[in-house]
Amino acid sequence: MTPSTAMNSETPPKETSSINDAAGGLELPPSEDPALETSPEPPDKSEGLEMPPIDSDQSSTGARASDTIAYASWQEIEQQITLVNKLTVVDFWSLSCQPCLEEFPGLVRLNKELGDKVKCMSVDVDFDGRKSRPPESYEERIVNFLTSVGATFPTFISQTASDEIFAELELASIPAVFVYDAEGNLVKRFVDAGETAGFSYDEDVIPFVKSLAG
């Protein structure tokens, strides 16, 4: 049925039919009522959010955790690291990793103390590839945790499955903290194995970063 046929019918059109009919494929004349105009679709988080500004003031007390979160693949996160142009500390963690949550405040302290010389970032690796638990399903709890510890630095919710990241980085487990130089080269890995087994921010990461930052 075309619009003209509908308008010439003896049966008056139902007032509530326009939106439903449009969804079913009926072409309707453009509405002159601005209130009925179609609003733009909200962005799809699964396609990724705009990256947090890498040159922003991380230690700003007015910053909110939700403003510093972005969705990204590991490849995109690596690209961000190379663009920082300063000493960078990246913490790999997840909500299900209790040691990660216990050590995370150390990154917050490092950021507050050396935020002018060091770029701090965190990468949440809760996503394990299951479609039933997409990356965005963890956002609310991630924001709540970051807010509770006062984190205002960039946090990436990984869109790459955790097993893929672990394989590429040769990680057996988390927590893990990687330190990169100003050129984006990896200079130190703190993992729970080998010489850094049982590492902590206070005893290991912060002193090492201070030695590089000068």
UniProtKB/TrEMBL annotation:
Region (Disordered): 1-64
Primary location recorded for the protein, binned into one broad class: other
GO CC terms: cell envelope
Cell location: Cell envelope
GO BP terms in the entry: cytochrome complex assembly
Superkingdom, natural source: Bacteria
Domain Thioredoxin, residue spans: 45-214
Keywords: Cytochrome c-type biogenesis, Disulfide bond, Redox-active center
Compositionally biased tracts (Polar residues): 1-20
Keyword Disulfide bond applies: yes
Protein name: Thiol-disulfide oxidoreductase
Species assigned in the record: Novipirellula artificiosorum
